[in-house]
Amino acid sequence: MRIRLWGTRGSLATPMSNTQLRDKARALLSEAKPADLASPAAIDAYLDRTPHSWTYGGNTSCVEVALPGQTFILDAGTGLRALSAQLMADGRGKSDELHFLFTHFHWDHICGFPFFGPIYLKDRDIHVWSGRSDSESLLSSQMSGAHFPVKWPSLPSKITCTQLAEQQATAIGAATIRILPLIHPDQAYGYRIDFGGRSVCYLTDTEVSKSPHRLAETYAEFVSGADVVIVDAMYGFLDYHDHINFGHSTIFNFIDFFRETRIGELVIFHHDPLASDAAVTRLRNDANRYKELVAPNATWRLSAAFEGKVWDLESVS
């Protein structure tokens, strides 16, 4: 199982501004020593170790889970365009079973779908799964009227939309899929993908912070034993109180939920579009300090999602 993050930002795509780029360049230049610029190899080494040479990214939600002969795509935000290019380049766009798993159908999670290359291949099978029964009408609406130049009925591919049952495991090829109802406007569902003794959970967008005690056991049970758990952690603790009922959470509640749960890594995801790279780093650092205080015996790692992050998980069964 290979997991790769193609879009990690919430609500709205956020390209890096000129001001932000200049700030990074200024920091790089001000901290560099003559030895750091002495050769191309020295420059690369400097860029590898400085926090100013990279970004968490600005594309909205899109996560790839690649299995032998199958590619699962969790949400179709703006990150999907780069994933589409990769799939077409390596041949999987034409050969793999392609399965979309949609948490919900807000614009930031579906706006990449019309730019997904395989939907323009004649008779190409595309499978869409969600917890809703109306996913086809919700997806097709952004490719109708004046919204998009290519209309849904004219697509040459064969797109099949299927509703997943709650509280029931569904076999999709070699993988097993489970869904979890989340707390978000217009209904959202989390996912768990199991394959070869490995698993990933994807729990965005959800507002657990409004009633954490009622939800802790349910979420902990759903993710138990998972290698990677990606969660909606859009806000810091104080920021959340200005965004109640927006449908998003803080990482601190998930740390509380999973303090005694066996998982591999807990990943901060769905970054606030207003949060700079430095702000996301501060949130990650604050979360790690909180973990040390409330869950000192927890063996799982905590990280913040960034575009291009990859987990390669070898099958164990």
Give the CATH H-level superfamily of the largest domain.
Ribonuclease Z/Hydroxyacylglutathione hydrolase-like
Give the N-terminus to C-terminus distance in angstroms: 12 Å
The H-and-E topology, N to C, reads as EHHEEHHEHEHEEEEEHEHHEHEE
Shape: globular
CATH class of the largest domain: Alpha Beta
Reported CATH architecture of the largest domain? 4-Layer Sandwich
How large is the count of helical segments? 10
Q: Give me the side-by-side strand order of the main sheet.
A: 6-5-4-3-2-1-14
> Roughly what fraction of the amino acids lie in strands?
15-25%
Low-confidence stretches: none
Reported for the largest beta sheet, the result is: 7 strands, mixed
Helix/strand-derived category reads alpha/beta
What is the helix fraction of residues, given as a range? 25-40%
Overall pLDDT score: 96
Report the radius of gyration as a whole number of Å.
20 Å
What's the number of structural domains? 2
CATH fold-type name of the largest domain: Metallo-beta-lactamase, Chain A
Count of strand segments: 14
Structure, described:
Helix 6 links the parallel strand 5 and strand 6. The mean pLDDT is 96. The protein is globular. It folds into two domains: 2-16 and 55-312, Ribonuclease Z/Hydroxyacylglutathione hydrolase-like (Metallo-beta-lactamase, Chain A); 19-49, no CATH class. A seven-stranded mixed sheet has the order 6-5-4-3-2-1-14. The chain has a seven-stranded mixed sheet with strand order 7-8-9-10-11-12-13, covered by helices on one side. The protein is α/β, with parallel strands linked by helices and 317 residues long. It contains ten helices and 14 strands.
